[in-house]
Amino acid sequence: MATRQGGKDDPSASDDRVQRNLKTRHVTMIALGGCIGTGLFMTSGSTIAKAGPGGALVAYAAMGLMVYFLMTSLGELATHLPTSGSFAAYNARYVDPALGFAMGWNYWLNWAITVAVDISTAALLIQYWLPHTPGWIWSLLVLVVIFLINALTVSTFGETEFWLSLIKVVTVIVFLVIGLAMICGIMFRPAVGLGNFTYKDAPFVGGFPAILNVFLIAGFSFQGTELIGVTAGESENPGKAVPKAINDVFWRILLFYILSIFVIAALIPYTSPNLLSSAQGDIAMSPFTMVFQRAGLASAASVMNAIILTSVLSSANSGVYASTRMLYALAKDHYAPAFFGHTTRHGIPMASLVATLVVSLATFAASIFGQRIYMWLVAASGLTGFIVWIGIALSHYRFRRAWVVQGHRVEELRYHAKLFPLGPILALILCIIVIGGQNIEAFVNWNWQEIGVTYISVPLVLALYLGYKIRYHTRIVPLKTMDLSGDPESL
Q: How far apart are CA 440 and CA 300, in angstroms?
């Protein structure tokens, strides 16, 4: 395996390229759909129960701001050099080839495992209506459907994600309209008002430790927003689509997450045991279900079950796409066997797709026949999103510094992140805090099994990084000699 610092596809492989057929509306909706999922529909209620309405709002606002900085960093990199390898390619080119290798393989494994979790969840959701049918049949059926969507064309994937994401967006908008009407007493009387914000110990419950705990939950809710970097490699016009998607995502995070938390907190007191139950996957206890029921929608639980099912399908679909493209990019950068870089005439990396689904299927089988193995596999993917975010912040910080050192002006960039270097430095610090704070109690009690289950993805990345570094004697890329060439099509 040769060492390459670049993220661009090998020019000699002109017949094995992905196709830029994702429209701007696809990229925008994929970016948005990536951050609206079960974290909002289910676990958002538990954040209010743990930290109170004020604590939940502070945590989500802080995490939303951090995610915005990360996305602007990724946007600057992705518009300059759009590639399916995304952050892994940027890690290799702007930090260290060994880091690109480690991040790419770790991200591929993470999504391949997550897809197995998603198809298991989808089966449970379908069994809500059909309780006497075997779940494994539904899981395999979902996997086949996801394979077909990803095996056709990238535009088929984009169109599917557009409509699945649109369902989630419309649901949140309807929820906000009904919720605000109930708070203000419009159509629904009497007005609920904002009394729950000062009920008992509200608005802040449990102080800073509770806010930190909720901060971790909020971070997982935003996982998947980095998908915008992967889609840039197949966008018709990345120079236009990526900045638009990033700017839209900021306002939509603010609108959907912050406003949704506000509405839930106003309508349901933080002491309600149902808010904690929602995090256990009880559809009837979802804060969205409870609000719709109070508004008089008798079939709210069934409707929310269907919507959460579309959310899980969207997650699985995006996961297969992201991991397939990452394995394809690893092959193009000589970090994986070359045959993973071959594509069909429609630009689909079929070998990468099949390999991803084989790992997903093996993980799913482990969930049935080897629970202990399955537990460690899922744990191995737990912190990957935050580790990827650290890589994005590092890459952007070093890219911008090299850009200036080599005599370029920031104005030359098609899109440039605001508040540099504050943005990537703040994101880097917060990500490290979030990773370190995942299970402090395990360290206090020196529970080695708990520590292993929680943090296994950290030594996994370090092992990949050090193994490649020792094998190929790579060095951190000097700023003065860093390859800053971009993609002419994106400029």
A: 38
Query: Exposure string (b/e) for 341-378, b if CB count within 10 Å is 16 or more?
Result: bbbeeebbbbbbbebbbebbbebbebbeeeeeebeebb
Number of domains within the chain: 1
Rounded to whole angstroms, the Cα distance separating 165 from 40 reads 13
**Dist CA 215 CA 456 (whole Å):** 21
Indicate whether this model's pTM tops 0.85. Answer: yes
pLDDT-derived band at 281 (thresholds 50, 70, 90) equals low
pLDDT score of 63 more than 50: yes
Condensed to tens digits (0 to 9), the pLDDT of residues 105-153 reads: 988 988 888 888 888 888 888 988 988 898 889 999 999 999 999 998 8
Q: Are 93 and 5 in contact (CB under 8 A)?
A: yes
Neighbours of 152 (CB within 10 A): 14
Tell whether 3 is covered by a domain: no
Angle (deg, nearest 10), helices 207-221 and 422-436: 110
Domain at 335, CATH number: 1.20.1740.10
Instruction: Provide the residue range defining the domain that includes 386.
Output: 24-472
Please name the residue that has the structure tokens 């699985």: 316
The answer to whether residue 367 sits within a structural domain is yes
Quote the pLDDT of residue 487.
67
| Per-residue b or e along 52-78, where b marks 16 or more CB atoms closer than 10 Å to that residue's CB | bbbbbbbbbbbbbbbbbbbbbbbbbbb
The CA-atom distances, in angstroms, between 253 and each of 33, 151, 389 are 11, 31, 17
Euclidean distance between CA atoms 388 and 365, whole angstroms: 27
The yes-or-no verdict on residue 187 having pLDDT over 80 is: no
Confirm if 119 and 361 have CB atoms less than 8 A apart. no
State the residue for tokens 């390619």: 89
Q: What is the mean pLDDT of residues 418-431?
A: 89
The answer to the question of residue 445 being in a domain is: yes
Instruction: Indicate the angle between helix axes 448-455 and 457-472, nearest 10 degrees.
Output: 60
pLDDT at residue 6 greater than cutoff 70: no
> What φ, ψ does residue 465 adopt, rounded to 5°?
-65, -50
Beta carbons within 10 angstroms of residue 181's beta carbon: 15
CA–CA gap between residue 480 and residue 270 (Å, rounded): 54
- Burial of residue 109 (CB within 10 Å: 0-12, 13-18, 19+) is buried
pLDDT at 347: 86
Q: What value does the mean pLDDT of the chain take?
A: 84
480 in any annotated domain: no
